[in-house]
Amino acid sequence: MLEPIAIVGAGSIGVAFAIVFTRAGHPVRLYDPDAQMRAQAPDTLHARASDLAAAGLLEEKPDALVARLLVTGDLSVAAQDVALVIECAPERVDIKQALFTELDRLTPPDAILASASSALPASRYATDLPGRARCLVAHPGNPPYLIPVIEIVPAPFTDPAAADRAQALFAAAGMLPIRVGKEVEGFVFNRLQGAILREAYCLVRDGVASVADIDTVVREGLGMRWSLIGPFETVDLNTRGGIASHAQKMGPAYERMGAERGQHDPWTSDLVAKVDGERRAQLPLDQWEVRVAWRDRALMQLVAARRKPPA
């Protein structure tokens, strides 16, 4: 049997994580102090699992996932003999401090203590714990059973081996962990999302475009490509000669756009060289044409799938 996983908080993210790990075969202990949240959690999980099954994304019956779920109002029961705890409480430092203090006391000393915080780093609430070396952030996309990326964000005091183990546990459950190199507010996911949102708000404010039109540009334009490849690969494939050529041609324009918003972050030659080096390690220029053709075929399949009526 796989190691038990504890989830603290039976809200939408907590139940979503319960789906991730019960689907992967783990016993899951779901803790919440609220009796109503505890009562509705199994039905919510079953309903979401039924949707996954109907879409062909679940290899078992939904009942099998519910059978691996233990819902409890006793944190000590949830914490017993677990390999990983995922805290999904509200974004308040005082709540997280109290929970991590209790979890540090109740869990096995080698259990990973992870917060699903969207912005608060572990150093805000775990610095003074005896077991702080096993504490980190594991920030998911929402919902994590459909959006598999998860950001593993160690604090300066986190043992690298604990971060490695967290990555392995999430990867084995079907997620795609990335390691964030340092604690910054918002991590990677929300910093990228925030950059888009800030500019979107400004474009509405300045009368450049409507809310609906901006959503259309992202949904039917940027989002179409980004569902297949990221922003660096997008511009790498958009410009013959790759990302270094793109930076040379478009860098000054992007610098001017940033300056309009009071931001001065030019793409220096050293930075471009670093990015280009990482891209060329992933895709040598002699394979550029092949990858462009792959992108176009993948977009064709996506367009065709979107034209099919929903079930």
TrEMBL record:
<comment type="subunit">
    <text>Homodimer.</text>
</comment>
<dbReference type="InterPro" id="IPR013328">
    <property type="entry name" value="6PGD_dom2"/>
</dbReference>
<dbReference type="GO" id="GO:0006631">
    <property type="term" value="P:fatty acid metabolic process"/>
</dbReference>
<keyword id="KW-0560">Oxidoreductase</keyword>
<dbReference type="Pfam" id="PF02737">
    <property type="entry name" value="3HCDH_N"/>
</dbReference>
<dbReference type="InterPro" id="IPR036291">
    <property type="entry name" value="NAD(P)-bd_dom_sf"/>
</dbReference>
<feature type="domain" description="3-hydroxyacyl-CoA dehydrogenase C-terminal">
    <location>
        <begin position="186"/>
        <end position="252"/>
    </location>
</feature>
<dbReference type="GO" id="GO:0070403">
    <property type="term" value="F:NAD+ binding"/>
</dbReference>
<feature type="domain" description="3-hydroxyacyl-CoA dehydrogenase NAD binding">
    <location>
        <begin position="5"/>
        <end position="183"/>
    </location>
</feature>
<dbReference type="GO" id="GO:0005737">
    <property type="term" value="C:cytoplasm"/>
</dbReference>
<feature type="site" description="Important for catalytic activity">
    <location>
        <position position="139"/>
    </location>
</feature>
<comment type="similarity">
    <text>Belongs to the 3-hydroxyacyl-CoA dehydrogenase family.</text>
</comment>
<dbReference type="InterPro" id="IPR006176">
    <property type="entry name" value="3-OHacyl-CoA_DH_NAD-bd"/>
</dbReference>
<keyword id="KW-0963">Cytoplasm</keyword>
<dbReference type="InterPro" id="IPR006180">
    <property type="entry name" value="3-OHacyl-CoA_DH_CS"/>
</dbReference>
<dbReference type="Pfam" id="PF00725">
    <property type="entry name" value="3HCDH"/>
</dbReference>
<dbReference type="InterPro" id="IPR022694">
    <property type="entry name" value="3-OHacyl-CoA_DH"/>
</dbReference>
<protein>
    <recommendedName>
        <fullName>L-gulonate 3-dehydrogenase</fullName>
        <ecNumber>1.1.1.45</ecNumber>
    </recommendedName>
</protein>
<dbReference type="InterPro" id="IPR008927">
    <property type="entry name" value="6-PGluconate_DH-like_C_sf"/>
</dbReference>
<dbReference type="InterPro" id="IPR006108">
    <property type="entry name" value="3HC_DH_C"/>
</dbReference>
<keyword id="KW-0520">NAD</keyword>
<keyword id="KW-0597">Phosphoprotein</keyword>
<dbReference type="GO" id="GO:0050104">
    <property type="term" value="F:L-gulonate 3-dehydrogenase activity"/>
</dbReference>
